[in-house]
Amino acid sequence: MITKYFTKVVVRFNPFGKEGMSRIIYNESIDDDQINELLIYSHTILNTQILYKAKLFLASIPPRQRILGTKIENELLNSNSTKEPLIKVTYKDKKEDTIDPRVLSFMEIANKLDGHSRQLRLKETIENH
């Protein structure tokens, strides 16, 4: 992921939030205890994926870039929070990208952010030559 052009990064996620809940298709052969177990399991798996994507994204920003001035805000939401998980990046040209980590995979997030970074790199290359 090209992070050179990031000026500000905001990562907000709730590893225990209800946004990880998924629907289960009702099946008469499944009793209530099994449904509860499935709900807890799917809730845990989906929230672990959100947490994993957020942590992987933060880890992909080089330490040197943090020293050079990229502002990084990491907000851990509690279970009572009404805020939604997000990854928000502000570039050097003031453009902002906001991404919902529940919807995209980490590679899709990286590709989406790399699109604008490539444009800025091309612009920088043209201006310097």
TrEMBL record:
The keyword Transmembrane does not apply. One of its GO terms (cellular component) is mitochondrial large ribosomal subunit. This is Large ribosomal subunit protein mL53. It comes from Maudiozyma exigua. It comes from the Eukaryota. GO terms for molecular function: structural constituent of ribosome. Coiled coil: none annotated. Belongs to the mitochondrion-specific ribosomal protein mL53 family. Signal peptide: none annotated. Keywords: Mitochondrion, Ribonucleoprotein, Ribosomal protein. It is found in: Mitochondrion.
